[in-house]
Amino acid sequence: MEFEQAAEILARVGQLSMSTSSVWRRVKTWGEHFQAREQAAEAQALALPTRDRLIPGERRSGGPMGVALDGAMVNIRQEGWKELKTGSVFAVVQRRTWDAKLDDWVDVPHAVQNSYVTHLGGPERFGRVLWAEALRRHWTRAGDTLVVADGAEWIWNLVREHFYDSRQAVDWYHATQHLWTVAHALYGEGTPEAQQWYRAHETPLFEGLADQLAGHFRTLARTHPEQADDLRREANYFEAHLRRMQYQELREDGWPIGSGMVESACKQYRHRFVGVGMRWSRPGIERLLPVRSAILSHRFDEVWSSVYKPPLN
Fold it and tell me: Residue 118: its pLDDT value, please?
């Protein structure tokens, strides 16, 4: 919560009189401790053996795990809007869910036990932070792993370095947005014809036929010169991510095909850091980010106990 709210709650609930500036100073002190802990975990992860070998004593006997990546924009003083790179590490379980289309109960994969990391900066450091969190969660013990994200190039470069032996998926929602782009380019945004065209091509996309869709877009580009640039761009996108668009296969193998777990986290970070009129100094927000991550990951008590050593009586 905001510092003013924290001071008010301390006064009302705890009968502790503390100014807003005092709250800020406490956050500064302990936020730096949280940062130090995060940096130590990163250093430890980088000191471990190469990614393609198990950590000594570990076996790949755990359940499936995944990571999801996304970004949110925050306003930094003297810098403007910057991307807050966000990652989620999660386990996967099957839950019985009612499917209205099938009119039956089906097993649907769900991401559970989500934990989160962030970095306000480049992908190289963010990749190390995310890898450290994956190792803390015993990533190398997982029987199988998945990375799900949008189509941003920096994400898949990072995956190639740290998670190269994992299955990969472009988030289903992002893929369908590109399909909608083609539909709207051909028939106009929001038209019944665009909706009909989209419904006819959604199933082939789900079935993993992105290459056939890309070929179809290129054929359409020759007969629709005004939309040709958009159609070729979308064809390139589907061709580039063909192996990451095997949605039916992923679902049959028990994997989620959406990145809602990390998109939800981005909303939670924005809720704290992108309020009306909020602008942050870079040191200020960087001290708060690991605290916010610990809260969202339901690990605050654990992390706090590792950084706070009460004085001896």
Answer: 96
